[in-house]
Amino acid sequence: MEKIKLNYRYRYPRVKFRNGETKYGMLYGIYNKSIQKLEYYFAESNQIRKVNVLHKNVQMNWVKKDQNRIHPSDILKVEYFN
Description:
single chain, 2 helices, 5-stranded antiparallel beta sheet, alpha+beta
């Protein structure tokens, strides 16, 4: 299995998941202070476009609220396009 490098600054990469789905979206790594662990979230591009949020903290809360939590081992491949 190849090592996957997650680039959180890139907008809408193509992500292939273990269940066979391929989606475009944003990857988020958010540190949870209460359990002292990094949690990973994925929001589809359609979800992001529907919600027009400019403030980054509000956007992070929106992603958490929408139950988009993933596990890094579920990601098989991430393709970044120029």
